[in-house]
Amino acid sequence: MSHTVQITFDCADPNGLAGFWNEVLGYRYDSPPPGFATWEEALDHFGVPKEERNNASAAVDPDGVGPRLWFQKVPEGKVAKNRVHLDVRSAPGLEGDERMSALESECARLVGLGGSRVRRFEPEPPLSKGYIVMQDPEGNEFCLD
Questions:
Q1: 76 DSSP assignment
Q2: Which helix or strand (DSSP H or E) is residue 14 part of?
Q3: Does the reported pTM lie above 0.85?
């Protein structure tokens, strides 16, 4: 039997963090339930209070290939380094200066969206082609690879 994977983020601002990752990955917000044109319409119909409408959000690959990302509000903030992180493949097939230049360009774009640069790791062939460690707006580590 085959399984699919959903990646879950605990966070303070589900809609905001979903929006960041939509921009990073070229994803979009998950569609509202059938029969509703918007999430606001659906949440009104279900009687969800306004103050609870940012308790969860989801981001999906418009091509249906990548995993769904689920963002759920939690009361506590992030306190330690992630034990699992995403590698965002931003320079496939590139090597050397061309690769690092592409990663730097993507890093600058993501910093402009609220991400943070942590550290650049230079290429060390044959095992590493170089990468940049970053954090999303809530401090979750990920790599531009």
A1: S
A2: helix 14-25
A3: yes
Total structural domains in the chain?
A: 2
In a shared domain, residues 11 and 43: yes
Domain CATH for 52: 3.30.720
Beta bridge partners of 56: 72
- Provide the residue range defining the domain that includes 10: 6-73
pLDDT digits (tens, 9 = 90+) for 59-98: 999 999 999 999 999 988 888 888 889 999 999 999 999 9
Q: Is residue 80 part of a domain?
A: no
Q: Which amino acid is at 56?
A: A
**What is d(CA 51, CA 105) in angstroms, rounded to the nearest whole number?**
38
My answer on whether 69 and 12 are in the same domain is yes
Instruction: Residue 60: name the closest of 139, 115, 5 by CA.
Output: 5
Q: Is residue 1 part of a domain?
A: no
Report the Cα–Cα distance between both ends of the chain, in Å, rounded: 31
Which stretches of the chain are assigned E, i.e. beta strand?
Answer: 6-11, 28-29, 56-60, 68-73, 86-88, 116-121, 131-135, 141-144
Tell me the C-alpha distance between 21 and 103, whole Å.
17
Say yes or no: 11 and 67 in one domain. yes
Q: How far apart are CA 122 and CA 104, in angstroms?
A: 12
